[in-house]
Amino acid sequence: GAVVSQHPSRVICKSGTSVKIECRSLDFQATTMFWYRQFPKQSLMLMATSNEGSKATYEQGVEKDKFLINHASLTLSTLTVTSAHPEDSSFYICSARASGGNEQYFGPGTRLTVT
Amino acid sequence: AQSVTQLGSHVSVSEGALVLLRCNYSSSVPPYLFWYVQYPNQGLQLLLKYTTGATLVKGINGFEAEFKKSETSFHLTKPSAHMSDAAEYFCAVSGPSGTYKYIFGTGTRLKVLA
Question: Is A106 exposed, middle or buried (0-12, 13-18, 19+ CB in 10 A)?
């Protein structure tokens, strides 16, 4: 149980375009979803927290207009990287928390490469 | 504020030797503590967690960790390293109460020598 999927697993896009990453909780309802960014050989950096039906809460220094997060249902959250640039290339990982729970369940990650 | 310190960004052990990965935390509230393993280009896999109760926590793949409140530590151990244990390991502590956030350490890369 408690499986989180991400799609796509890898994506390459051209500079200036937008790309959407999906995060789904497959067998539970996710009250809260988290989006992280991980640079090579570094730790996870929390970008934002989203609660179903509410606006996401972004961490300090994260551009909300660049990283659009939508949590429209209890099983799906999306991260859209708008007007992507090479410096946005990174590994993006989502996690989900079930209602009433404290634990986060992590997705497999999405490797974004902006050329 | 909560924080996590992982001592040693790289640890090398011989196959069959003891694995010890260190994690110290600070927390203003009773913490939840976690150890995750990450293989290249993959997400995080939970090894074990401490929430309440028994301070010695056993996890998957033969790993265990002991919560020591007096030392604010949650070190990860495994009696005998296997080649497949080579990976990145992250310690995490629960964030401010009510936020459900995790605060991650900087990670320790474990190398297992044949």
Answer: buried
> Residue B11: how many CB atoms within 10 A of its CB?
18
- Of the candidates A34, A93, A103, the beta carbon closest to that of B43 is on A93
How far is residue A109's CA from residue B38's CA, in Å, rounded to a whole number? 11
On the question of pLDDT at B41 being above 90, the answer is no
User: How many beta carbons lie within 10 A of that of residue A32, not counting itself?
Assistant: 22
Q: Assign B94 a pLDDT band (cuts: 50, 70, 90).
A: confident
Mutation for testing the A interface, residue in B2, B6, B27, B44 having most A CBs under 10 Å: B44
- Residue owning tokens 């996401």: A56
Query: Which of B38, B45, B49 should one mutate to test binding to chain A, selecting the residue with the greatest count of A CBs within 10 A?
Result: B38
Tokens of B58: 């056993």
Provide the residue type at A14 as one letter. K
* pLDDT the model gives residue A113: 97
DSSP bridge partners of B44 = B38
- Provide the token pair at B88: 């990145």
